[in-house]
Specification:
Two copies of one chain form a homodimer. The first copy, chain A, is an alpha+beta fold and 394 residues long. Helix content of chain A is 30%, strand content 18%. Chain A contains nine helices and 13 strands. In chain A, helix 8 runs antiparallel to helix 9. The longest helix of chain A is centred in the middle third of the chain and has 24 residues.
């Protein structure tokens, strides 16, 4: 477990006089242990006194389990008619009683707007409906709301998290290359998205990578005019002269990137270049403000003003960015006109200005992921982002 | 909306004296309207009196909205600082007051073990944590628990649902062909999975298909011995002479298939054939019992006994099947030794016997999806399921 994360969590427990914290969402387990569960029914018991215990189902693969922590199996998925949850709740209760004989309060995040998917991302984990209520009862002293501060753990990426994110962004860069290589070839949007998706999936099982999956969406020509409202792919064939927007969430080992690139298939028009320059300029204007202590709405404003001054004021309908890393969209304050948040060291935010309009014949967005550092910022998503691919003319 | 579905829902409301039902989970909206939401924040208001109203976010694509129902936008995703949910709750409250001036109780499924993903399957929809509590309050008469009976709607697929499932299974059959075509080529598990995934994604935007996505996982050789416990792909290269298991959930327009095929790369051994014959025989034994009124645990028993009699008694560690169609795994009774359920017309169940063991050098499972009909059953997943591909010898 990352030293900084350990320190943050233990300080929180001390400040709030908690006997233990519980974590079970896939994104929480990645944050705490760098462990992305397969089934999504693992629970971390993290006590103030003594060592933590990770409860995993009998069916969890051994090779994805984290090192340096006691792992205990419980009989989820075993065909013996027992209720595995009853076994689990009792085991946690017993652990807590051992560590805090006089009793003590537990806390966990009761609700945080869903969660990242587990490795089995085709469905939500089959958690029992009363999980939170049952976990409250593992302590006679009950549950304590550590809500805001506990959720704040998402907003601080450690050195371990940054290393995880760098791995994700290396694969993202490869996927972006595939996008630029294939964008001129007259594919449908869906086929181009499939090629990008496949490029990421192929990395699964590569060196140090047991899970890689992407959710790419491609919108071209008139469809790209909608890319400020939604993203998805259709069977529309990509034509020469069109803007082509790739929006992509991708997850590698539990760490997420959220990337957008826009290419032109064929020749870019003057309007395309003006739109591109406005968006890149807006990104630079935002970067100029990125450092700890700056109000997040000021960053949005800098980008928004730049786009307005470039003559595209009515064409940027969404916020400038949001936090990311443990999910496609992390919880926490956003870069938007209505934000009350302040940048802090360790945050990872997207910076994603866009210009879209039927009147413009399409839309264009560039989205990068940026780490806030003590001195300012560092772009994590350093891949090609020109209108034209590196080896495909200009 | 399907006539049968309408009838089932309206009978339920009458029996339980409800003024309205509310639905918001992606799988519920598919069941009610054949509509798979993009963002996952749409809500269906279905009153006992008068016409239903579907509330969708401003940002929802027009072309995926269902026909034949009033659609009303609410300002989710619009950058104006308003709380879209407050607008939505009030709109539902006003509709209810119009239809039931004297007041009346509403119901919805409070919890049903998660949901299927929306089109943006990389994360759960950003629903507010107190959604259920707020929806309770749209009626002064409060919420009424229609739980079991309401959840029972999942267990009855209508003609419309069957047509949707047939479309999904046509694409599944294509994906299975890609699997058999590529299994001999010395790929890694992850690359073979990527090719299958890509074949499904390419169908997105095809005729009548606006969404297609697959979650394929490939396990080969020694890894296939684990396929009774979990599924995932690794970077292991598939070798000649190995068993290769493809497990795949796939979703087309909101309708799910859950398929397993096992191929042999190269020559099958006698043991492989014995395992295969036992699994196919177990499926046939189960099929012999499939008709309305039969206890689900008896179906499991027939397959389990067959496998035991074939000499593989200790190697079938999981239940025979579960319901599917609106999700990868639908809620409801399962085919297992501990099931108390009874087969009913309109159910769709998986039939997925498997044999796995280190001692056997690997694992093998065949999984099909079967509709229970008035007379018996119909297999929906009629694609190739031999150990060897059609055009690849043997």
């Amino acid at each position: 477990m990352d030293t900084k994360r350990k320190e943050l969590v233990e300080e929180l427990m001390q400040r709030q006089r908690l006997a233990a914290l519980l974590f079970w969402r896939p994104d929480e387990l990645v944050m705490m242990l760098g462990y992305m569960p397969l089934w999504g029914v693992s629970v971390l018991f993290y006590p103030a006194e003594g060592q933590a215990v990770l409860f995993v189902p009998e069916l969890e693969p051994e090779d994805i389990l984290p090192a340096g922590i006691e792992v205990r199996k419980y009989p989820w998925g075993v065909l013996d008619g027992r209720d595995p949850w009853v076994v689990l709740y009792k085991a946690i209760r017993d652990e807590l009683a051992k560590r805090s004989p006089g009793g003590g309060r537990v806390s966990f995040i009761r609700n945080i707007g869903g969660s990242a998917p587990c490795r089995m991302s085709g469905e939500q984990p089959p958690l029992p409906p009363d999980l939170a209520e049952q976990l409250e009862r593992v302590s006679d002293a009950g549950w304590s709301d550590a809500g805001g501060e506990l959720a704040g753990l998402y907003e601080q990426k450690t050195a371990t998290d940054v290393a995880g994110l760098e791995k994700t962004h290396r694969i993202a860069a490869h996927a972006v290359e595939v996008f630029y290589r294939e964008v001129e070839k007259g594919h449908t949007e869906a086929l181009l998205a499939a090629q990008v998706e496949s490029a990421v999936q192929e990395a699964s099982g590569g060196p140090g990578i047991s899970f890689a999956k992407a959710w790419p969406m491609v919108q071209s020509g008139r469809n790209s005019a909608d890319a400020g409202k939604f993203n998805r792919s259709t069977n529309k064939v990509i034509q020469s002269g069109e803007l082509v927007v790739l929006e992509m969430g991708l997850c590698v080992e539990g760490y997420w990137a959220d990337i957008t690139r826009t290419a032109v298939a064929g020749e870019a028009t003057d309007l395309h270049r003006r739109m591109y320059d406005a968006v890149i300029g807006a990104q630079r204007a935002a970067y100029g403000l990125l450092r700890p202590g700056v109000a997040m709405r000021e960053v949005d404003k800098a980008a928004r003003d730049y786009i307005r001054d470039a003559g595209f004021g009515g064409y940027f309908p969404h916020g400038l960015g949001h936090q990311t890393g443990f999910r496609y969209h992390d919880p926490g304050d956003t870069l938007s006109p209505f934000s009350t948040g302040v940048l802090r060291e360790g945050m990872v935010v997207t910076v994603e200005p866009g210009i879209y309009g039927e009147a413009l014949g399409g839309g264009l967005r560039i989205e990068d992921n940026v780490l806030i550092t003590a001195e300012g910022y560092r772009i994590l998503s350093e891949s090609h982002r020109e209108l034209k691919g590196k080896n495909h003319g200009n």
